[in-house]
Amino acid sequence: MTACSPATARQIAPAGSALLRDAVEGLTGPGQKTLPCKHLYDARGVELFERITALPEYYPTRTELAILRENLPRIAAELGPGVRLVEPGSGSSTKTRELLAALGDPSEYVPIDIAPEFLAAGKASLARALPGLRVTPVRADFTAPLSLPPAPGGAHRTVVFFPGSTLGNFGPAEAKRLVDHLAELAGVGGGGALLIGLDRIKPPAELLPAYDDDAGVTAAFNLNLLHRLNREAGRTVLAPGCFRHEARWNAAAAAVEMHLVAEHPLEAELGGRPIHFDAGESIHTESSHKFGDAAIGRLFAGWRVQAFEDASRRFGLYLVTAGRSAAS
Ligand code: AVI
């Protein structure tokens, strides 16, 4: 399963030369060149992504936080006391802290991350913000089968919190598999719940600026992939100055795609294999899928879904529990 978020990238990106192996695979063959988006998140990439979330054009983070704040009392009432909150990713975010603070006496917070340093940092920042909260980090790849530690005595239900529309960085089939996996982890059939943030479909004129901001932060984020490739190769394989960032709307896939477009014809080599770019040819580096009602219905088929959305339905937080939605 591929993944493309700070959290999921840390979950599954093997260290060192994984990018080089993926680059040989994705750049030297025929057809559309690709690099997996998990490689966007080295230390510099994580820093740039943090800056993206605060950009005026990047509406998802602040819209989701506003939705959460507005609906916290309802969500907390729905979930009840003694929640064990499980978060794929290290989760020291404002959203996580505010959700935990609003829940009635949460029994435990369980961040799941493959990187011990992120788990430790998240634990420390939560301990400061919510002293007394039991935090049980789990070092694991959340996209792979895993079991949670036994729930503490007072745990009323397990809730998996997966905000940020990170699910949109997976392809549709992968996203469905991940939702099923998380539903199993939460035990949705037995009283658990999922709380998942999804960016909704909207006109490309609204979507594209979020992925091509005026300050050029997203461009730097995308081009950083080539800096990383060159650093890991120990030489310049592809000069970042020869490429420009482009955000494209793929209507058929309902996804904003990030590409790195070669400004001129280029010849390079990696792993003993030639790489050729025509002028204007691109590397596809990320897909950010957007969700309409039908796609959301497919993702959560068979469950009850309560939607918490902003007035313009730009973004939604979906609370998934056992039983069927009125609409389904
Ligand atoms: C992490 N993920 C949900 C972001 C998104 O919107 O797909 C990553 C991102 N890529 C460019 N800007 C933000």
From TrEMBL:
Residues 21-321 form the Histidine-specific methyltransferase SAM-dependent domain. Keywords: Methyltransferase, Transferase. One of its GO terms (biological process) is methylation. GO terms for molecular function: methyltransferase activity. InterPro entries: EgtD, EgtD_Methyltrsf_superfamily, MeTrfase_dom, MeTrfase_EgtD-like, SAM-dependent_MTases_sf. Pfam families: Methyltransf_33 (PF10017). This is Histidine-specific methyltransferase SAM-dependent domain-containing protein. It comes from Phycisphaera mikurensis (strain NBRC 102666 / KCTC 22515 / FYK2301M01).
